[in-house]
Amino acid sequence: MADDGDVGGFAGRIGARLDEGEDGTATLVFEVRDEHLNPAGTLHGGVVATLVDTAMGQAVRTTTEDGEVPATSQLTVTYLRPGEPGPLQVRGRVRTRGRHLTICEADVEQDGRSVAHAVATFAILDRR
User: How far apart (Å, rounded) are the C-alpha atoms in residues 13 and 23?
Assistant: First the structure.
């Protein structure tokens, strides 16, 4: 896991940063800007999906060994209220870690209010 907060990939390109990650958990911070909004002026659902997927993937990475790579195999996002411009936090956590499959959850909060909840299954691939 990157020590400088860089999550890399697409999530890094849109501005997501790793705040902390250890022991099956990870927290991302993100600043919602105008380019992240949909035509209705609220946070685009695809951005939320990217953030929860990334937070959960980072949480899984805290449990993997050298050569193991988590890959999303299923993702369900429940949108609870519209996100708005400004800071938000995404907390991902491993619920059940198996040898080949891992179940995770994530919550997105902004100003102390829930924006979304997600559940995902990650396959653990062997890249040795």
Answer: 26
- What the chain holds in terms of domains, given with CATH numbers, is 9-126 (3.10.129.10)
**C-alpha angle with apex 42: 52 to 77, nearest 5 degrees?**
30
State both tokens at 29. 């911070």
Helices (H), 1-128: 9-14, 45-61
The pTM (predicted TM-score) of the whole model is 0.93
Q: What is the arrangement of strands in the sheet containing 25-32, beginning at the earlier edge strand?
A: 17-22, 25-32, 86-97, 101-110, 113-126, 68-79
Task: Give me the pLDDT at residue 2, please.
Answer: 43
Give per-residue pLDDT as tens, 19-67: 988 999 999 999 999 999 999 999 999 999 999 999 999 999 999 999 9
The one-letter amino acid code at 19 reads D
